[in-house]
Amino acid sequence: MNYCTWALMAQPLNVANASWQEVQRNLFPCSGDAYYDEQHERPNPLLSDTNYRYGWEYIGLSQ
Questions:
Q1: Who contacts 40 (Cβ-Cβ below 8 Å, separation ≥6)?
Q2: Where are the alpha helices (DSSP H) in 1-63?
Q3: Separation in Å, CA 63 to CA 34, 47, 51
Q4: Mean pLDDT by 10 residues, the chain (63 residues)
Q5: How far apart are CA 54 and CA 9, in angstroms?
Q6: Which regions of the chain does DSSP assign to beta strands (E)?
Q7: Contacts for 28-31 with beta carbons within 8 Å, 24 or more apart?
Q8: pLDDT tens-digit profile of 17-34?
Q9: Listing from the earlier edge strand, what are the strands of the sheet with 21-30?
Q10: Is 23:8 a contact under the CB 8 Å cutoff?
Q11: pTM (predicted TM-score)
Q12: 27: nearest Cα among 12, 36, 37
């Protein structure tokens, strides 16, 4: 089984032109095909916050 590294990114909602900041990195099972994984295996953020927007950024194949 392959594992890919994803970075959880956060962006403040109440700041004009705020940049995305990395919050944490996690490993998730994946196919090993970067294009497929970015399109179809993207994890759900699972975080809700009224001050930030969250999303996952694909880092690459880890194992």
A1: none
A2: 34-40
A3: 13, 26, 34
A4: 94 93 94 89 80 92 82
A5: 6
A6: 2-12, 21-30, 52-61
A7: 28/3, 28/4, 29/1, 29/2, 29/3, 29/4, 30/2, 30/3, 30/4, 30/61, 31/2
A8: 999 999 999 999 999 898
A9: 21-30, 2-12, 52-61
A10: yes
A11: 0.81
A12: 37
> Given this model, what pLDDT does residue 63 score?
67
Nearest 5°: the CA angle 17, 57, 6 is 145
DSSP letter for 17, please.
T
Alpha carbons within 13 angstroms on the beta-carbon side of residue 36 total 8
Q: Which amino acid is at 10?
A: A
Give the pair of three-digit tokens for residue 35: 């294009």
Sorted by sequence, the CB contacts under 8 Å of residue 4 that are 6+ apart come out as 27, 28, 29, 30, 32, 37, 41, 58, 59, 60, 61, 62
In the prediction, which pLDDT does 36 show? 92
